[in-house]
Amino acid sequence: MSWNGTVRCGKCYESGHNRTSCPEMKKAWEEDPTSYHGREYARHEARKKAPKTCSYCRETGHTRAGCADIKSHKAQFHNDAALFRRVLVKWMKETGIGVGALVRSQDARYYDAKDNYHYPGDDGYVAPVGLVMSNISSSTHHYVALREAPQHTSSDSFLMMQTLGSASLPEYRRNVGLSLPCIAGIVPRMGQDYYGREIDRLERMSGANWEVVSPGQVDFDNCQWVTTKAIKKTVKEHFARDMGQNSDDFKTFSVARRSQLHDYLDGIVSLSQMSDPELPKNDS
């Protein structure tokens, strides 16, 4: 398509049609079906006549753009994401997590002031302390709270802290990523792997075992992460064709979990009263 929005053919370079409907391509096929352009035209025509198959639900008769399942899943994903983000913002406010909060991580990998790298399993490991200096990562969404989703045990950073005493280091060595910690009723600690075996989230990832030493100065309750615009952007990115998502990958909160999260938001239950759902029994 040209800069002014007019379709231009990649074969004859005329305006008003594209390569798949080019009369020159059809002419080439009529003159010699075995020629390069003749075979290309035949492939285009065969593709047009083939039954439509949806890349999301894998049903025939429609494409991804007209799939009822993906429309329904997008709407539910949006609602779940909005609920989860509001819950997290309330949890952070109650816990003192904000810009300037002083936190201590028990399982972070980090550089000290002498530029030495430390692993949590090292002898004499000293838990780093640092200041939260960034907003919430835009990539964080509610799948991290769903133990059947791969994001549940992903070590993706939720926040970044700058370790104390690291001012002389390059920026990428001063900052330490913090994953979402396990929060009863919000982010379950225990989950199950693909085979239904019980797994401990803290044993599968790093950066999730941390605590607030001193509360922050600026809350995250007005950050862009919780806006409708930001949530719509997350939905669009998650369901984009090139992300490879299909209906089997879709996850959502159970009715009981969604109800508990709403109760927490509405003040019906406190954080201390929240509980993780029971793991389903593994019959194998």
Textual characterization of the structure:
This protein is an alpha+beta fold. The protein contains 7 helices and 9 strands; from the N terminus they run αααβββββαβββαβαα. The longest helix is centred in the first third of the chain and has 28 residues, at 68-95.
Set out the fold topology.
Blueprint: H1 23-31, H2 36-49, H3 68-95, E1 102-105, E2 110-111, E3 117-118, E4 129-132, E5 159-163, H4 171-174, E6 175-178, E7 190-192, E8 198-200, H5 201-204, E9 210-214, H6 228-238, H7 255-265
Antiparallel strand pairs: 1-4, 1-9, 2-3, 4-5, 5-6, 7-8
Write a concise synopsis of the structure shown:
With 284 residues, the chain is an alpha+beta fold. 29% of the residues lie in helices and 11% in strands.
